[in-house]
Amino acid sequence: MVKKLIGTAALLAVFLGIVTAVASPNTLAAFITTGSQLISDGAVLAIDSNSFVLRTSGGDTQAIILTGRTQITGGSLDVGDRVRVIAVRRNSILEASVIRIEENIGGYGVAGSPVLTMRGQVVSRTSDTLTITTAAGSIMFRITATTRFVGSTFTSLDPGDEVSVTGNDTGAAFVANLVIAQ
Question: Disulfide engineering: 42 pairs with which of 16, 23, 56, 114, CB 3.0-4.6 Å?
Fold first, then answer.
């Protein structure tokens, strides 16, 4: 599996060199990392059965692996699609957790604030964040004074607790509006 991933990354690097020379950037804003998590908007430059290449507005490119756990919403992934990607870095390889295909991606300086609902287990809690893990990977939500809790309080949530979190992508973070303890 690791050899296959390394081989795919090497092929993508060669293809990326060719594509970069002829492709024009047609992308949106951001490239944000939080620990091992990456959130980025951009355009799909190349795709194969288990990976794709993303170009950000700054011209940076990222090879990102697709797995059976990758959730793709908004259609099927094609070259030229504008996407928002949530990926997790595993042993220096970016693995896509969620890919949203959209014409008008909200957040990161772009109009709109898409709603996101995730169900999973609490991984950690700080004074103002809640991180949950789902089948697609982990995601961190910012907790504010307006976040509502049903079936629990923020301070009583512990690692392993099952929750459903609904929030908005503000561009700087995913902000929890509602957390329901299961």
Answer: 56
**Beta strand pairing call for 129-134 and 71-73:** unpaired
Rounded distance, CA 171 to CA 99, Å? Answer: 16
Q: Among 2-11, 23-32, 155-164, name the one with the lowest average pLDDT.
A: 23-32
Residue 169 Cα to chain centre, angstroms: 11
3-class secondary structure, 69: coil
Enumerate the H helices of the chain as residue ranges. Answer: 2-22
Q: Give residue 37's region: left, alpha or beta (phi > 0; psi -120 to 50).
A: beta
Q: Kindly give the pairing relationship between strand 71-73 and strand 148-150.
A: unpaired
pLDDT of 21-61, one tens digit each? Answer: 333 333 333 445 455 777 778 888 888 989 998 886 556 78
> In which region does residue 107 sit, left (phi positive, over 0), alpha (psi from -120 to 50) or beta (all else)?
left
Domains of the chain: 2-101 (2.40.50.320), 115-181 (2.40.50.320)
In sequence order, the 6+-apart residues with CB closer than 8 A to the CB of 60 are: 31
Residue whose C-alpha is closest to residue 90's, from 145, 138, 24? 138
Mean of the pLDDT values across residues 68-77? 87
CA trace torsion 15, 28, 131, 95 (10° rounding): -10
